[in-house]
Specification:
Elements (H helix, E strand, L loop, with lengths): L3 E9 L5 E10 L4 E5 L6 H8 L7 E6 L2 E2 L4 H7 E4 L11 H11 L4 H14 L15 H12 L6 E5 L7 H16 L3 E6 L2 H7 L2 E6 L2 E6 L1 H8 L2 E7 L12 E4 L2 E6 L2 H14 L4 E7 L3 H9 L3 H20 L1
Parallel strand pairs: 3-8, 3-9, 6-7, 7-8
Antiparallel strand pairs: 1-2, 1-4, 4-5, 9-10, 11-13, 11-14, 12-13
Helix pairs in contact: 3-4, 3-5, 5-6, 8-10
């Protein structure tokens, strides 16, 4: 049985915006599944539909074997949700935030204390439990929020842009924590517009744009579907006419070799070039990226979609002010 089943789901808001347009997905139990797309792609809307915060305009949704909307109360018992905006109370300690979350889930007294202590140790915030949250780093706050979502031991965890606004070090801390939860068997559905995040964490991803899903597959398969990467060898001397590499292009003092797995193929091609008499001075690897795959399936690169989405938002705000 799938952990999450979405069949031809659409969501049109009262202002006429179609945020989800005929979305269908099957997400297996225990996997980390990513919704990858720019702001305005419909990722957050889809999470709100799955977490019972809004109703679909049409289509069928099933979470943990429970159908919406009839069993929304059952769905809320088995899911955890971390929204994009900061949800922890900055004026309270980490311990107090976890304790309040436990009580909101009907856990009181000594059991709430036990849960709070276990969660704080589990998310590596035990030493900082009595510090006010406003003194926490961005990574610590995000881990705390994930901990708050885990107090009732949910089977499915929804993370909306879990590392947005974090520096690279804090981002990797959160990644490690998400991996730890995955190893415990929790199903995780996360949204992101960071290509490297989707590549590092997700077993499968759905690329989204304009409320629609363009393609669903593993990051590795998506990158393979685009085509070859390449290795660029710079040479210090003259390049022989025949270097013995079929898929190679010579341009001045450089040799570009096209291959499916540049990192793996590098040592072999380096030996071939050196045996052919090439004095290699530097090497540059250009792997195929998820952004290349996004370009293939959506028609634009992510940065272009972000700029387009930002322009639309600015125009909407301007119209309201007129």
């Amino acid at each position: 049985m799938s952990a999450i089943s979405i069949k031809n789901v659409s969501k049109r808001y009262s202002n006429g915006v179609l945020a989800a347009d005929g979305v269908s997905l099957e997400i297996a139990s225990g996997e980390i599944f990513g919704l990858l797309g720019p702001n305005g792609a419909g990722k957050t809307t889809l999470l709100k539909l799955l977490t019972t915060l809004i109703f679909p305009t049409s289509g069928e949704i099933e979470v943990g074997g429970f159908k919406r909307p009839r069993y929304d109360h059952k769905i809320r018992e088995i899911i955890g949700y971390v929204p994009q905006d900061i949800s922890s109370d900055a004026a309270l300690t980490g311990y107090e935030n976890i304790l309040i979350s436990a009580k909101l889930h009907g856990i009181y007294g000594s059991k709430a204390v036990e849960v709070a202590e276990n969660i704080l140790k589990r998310i590596d915030l035990w030493e900082a439990r009595n510090r006010i949250v406003r003194t926490y780093s961005g990574g610590m706050i995000r881990k705390l929020e994930i901990g708050q979502a885990m107090v009732h031991s949910p089977k499915i965890l929804f993370l909306d842009e879990p590392t947005v606004g974090l520096d690279p070090s804090a981002r990797k801390q959160v990644w490690a924590h998400i991996q730890k939860l995955h190893e415990e068997g929790i199903t995780i559905l996360m949204t992101t517009h960071y290509m490297e995040e989707a590549d590092a964490l997700c077993g499968r991803i759905a690329m989204m744009a304009n409320g629609r899903i363009a393609v669903v597959d593993s990051p590795a398969n998506l990158k393979k579907s685009v085509g070859q990467g390449c290795i660029v060898f710079k040479t210090a001397g003259k390049i022989p006419e025949n270097i013995g590499v079929e898929d190679a292009r010579v341009n001045g003092d450089s040799v570009t070799v096209y291959c499916c797995s540049p990192s793996e193929e590098l040592p072999r091609y380096l030996r071939i070039l050196e045996n052919a008499g090439c004095s290699v001075s530097s090497v540059e690897i250009k792997e195929t990226t998820l952004d290349d795959a996004f370009m293939k399936y959506v028609g634009r690169r992510m940065v272009e979609m972000e700029q387009w989405s930002a322009t639309r938002r600015i125009r909407r705000v301007a119209r309201r002010l007129e």
